[in-house]
C-alpha cells in the first residue's frame, strides 16, 4: 500500500466552509478510481494549505492519477501546483473495524 500526501496553497480568503464546498464538488471524481482505497481532504485555515491524504493499492495506481493534466487541474482550481509525497504504508490500524492490517 502507498499513502500519498498532496498539499497545495489555497487562494487568500478561502475559509473552511468554502474549502469544504470545493472539496465536496470534486469528491465524485474519485469514486471508482482504480487502486484508490480511501481519500481524506485536508484544510489548514491558518496556513491556507489544502490537499488530501490518499491510500492507494500501489504507487503505479497513484501515479496514473497524478498526471501533468491532473496537476494542471489542481493549479487551475486552487491557484497553485500540488506537492506530492509518497510513503510506503506497512501497517494500517482501523479502529472502526477493529482491525490491524499489514500490507502484503
What is the correct CATH architecture?
2-Layer Sandwich
Helix content bin: 25-40%
**Count of helix runs:** 3
- The CATH topology annotation reads as Alpha-Beta Plaits
Instruction: Write down the CATH class.
Output: Alpha Beta
Q: Give me the side-by-side strand order of the main sheet.
A: 2-3-1-4
Structural class: alpha+beta
The number of domains: 1
Count of β-strands: 6
The average pLDDT is: 94
- Uncertain segments are none
Distance between the termini: 8 Å
How do the helices and strands follow one another from N- to C-terminus?
EHEEHHEEE
Radius of gyration: 14 Å
Q: Please give the largest β-sheet.
A: 4 strands, antiparallel
Strand content: 35-45%
> So what's the overall shape?
globular
Structure description:
- The chain is of the alpha+beta class and about 100 residues long.
- It has one domain: Alpha-Beta Plaits (2-Layer Sandwich).
- Helix content is about 30%, strand content about 40%.
- It is built from 3 helices and 6 strands, in the order E-H-E-E-H-H-E-E-E.
- It has helices spanning about 15-25, 60-65, 70-80; strands at about 1-10, 35-45, 50-55, 85-90, 90-95, 100.
- The strands form 2 sheets. A 4-stranded antiparallel beta sheet has the order 2-3-1-4. The chain has a two-stranded antiparallel ribbon with strand order 5-6.
- The longest helix is centred in the first third of the chain and has 11 residues, at about 15-25.
- It is globular and about 40 Å long.
- The model has no long low-confidence stretch (mean pLDDT about 95).
